[in-house]
Amino acid sequence: MADVEPLLRTESGDAIGGDAAARRPVFELFEGFALTSVLASLERAGLLARLEGGSVPADPSEGRDGLPLATLRYLAQRGVVEEVNGMFTLSQRGREICKDKGYLVWLQGGYGHVLASLGDFSTGARRYGDDVIRDGRWVADGSALIGRDDVSPHATEVLTGIDFSHVVDLGCGNARFLIAAANRFGVTGVGVDLAPEACEDAGHAIAAAGLEDKIKVRCGDAGDLDAIPELAEADLAVAFFLLHEIFEHGREALMAYLRKLGSIMPRGAYMLVAEVQPASGAPDEKWRPEFTLLHAIMRQQLLTAEGWHDAFVEAGWSRHEVRDLGLPGAVLLLYQNTAPAGAEGGE
Ligand SMILES: C[S@@+](CC[C@H](N)C(=O)[O-])C[C@H]1O[C@@H](n2cnc3c(N)ncnc32)[C@H](O)[C@@H]1O
Asked: Which residues form the Methyltransferase domain (predicted)?
């Protein structure tokens, strides 16, 4: 088919609404923001599952104000779904995005309102922690979805190489790791998380998995190691995306934490840690700049793999294995406790 000549052109010869708009970077941001909001919101309302499960009919009478159909049409216009014979189905691009939807849920559900307050945080009109906090449920749910593909397979592979039977998960979120570990390795576990919504979700997930006799979750501060007596019997402590919260209180606080953990846990016990490294400044880096900025808002700094290594070694832990995770710039660190029982030296 011959190209249709546009009716209007700018002075530079671009078709109005065509090439010129395509070259304006603002519309890429505009679309990304809208699509992120729409997809995360559908997931949070439990509606994305329908599309992930198969085809959805174009039904103008469905839902409130015809919004389901308007949304499906929007997603088709943006290439996330395809409409064939009145049925909407995820496109290849849509399937790829849904596979990684945890990133959208984490960002929009957990931190959307936090990012939107950045101007006020910068002027001092509001303060993170006092006036605005992240949403614990969607941080935990988003993290669990991200972890499903980008952490768990790597963690399982690493853990296959060691012996362990009792796990303590520090900052366990919705207990997705403990449930997977109990199913895969037959171990028992205790989880501790500060967010009541995450603990509530964890309770439901453990019950749904029929693992109440193997896994317990408590709502509490994982920074208070004295309140976690199970550590004395644990041969594996897990801290996925938690240790930077301890580092928030300074390097000395982190060192004291790691030393104390080593003094409570049996000699030879393991610690498995996942952390995102800070943005490196490389062009086109994915995820790390946003993760770094959000943690700066929360007054938290991130460490490189070398930074974590130095801290662990100084606190009496030896490196067993370090590898990259599926999340851009994230690392999985497995260290072993070399401290003699009861020793809390260096404090
Ligand atoms: C990014 S999420 C990761 C959740 C889980 N570890 C995972 O990988 O799916 C971090 C979790 O740590 C929890 N958390 C943060 N500070 C904590 C603290 N001091 N004590 C216990 N939990 C904490 C948060 O509530 C959140 O659920």
From this structure: 167-259
- How much is the ipTM here? 0.99
Q: Cα 301 from chain centroid? A: 17
| Residue 2 pLDDT greater than 80, yes or no | no
- Whole-angstrom distance, CA of residue 42 vs CA of residue 63: 13
Q: 144: Cβ below 6 Å to ligand 1?
A: yes
List the domains of the chain with CATH numbers.
19-99 (1.10.10.10), 139-337 (3.40.50.150)
User: What is the position in ligand 1's atom list of the atom closest to the CA of 222?
Assistant: 20
Q: Is the CB of 201 under 6 A from ligand 1?
A: no
Question: What's the gap in Å between 31 CA and the centre of ligand 1?
Answer: 31
Q: Tell me the β-bridge partners of 88.
A: 56, 83
Judge whether residue 161 has pLDDT over 70.
Answer: yes
Q: Show Cβ contacts of residue 11 under 8 Å, excluding neighbours closer than 6 positions.
A: none
User: The tokens 């019997």 sit on which residue?
Assistant: 233
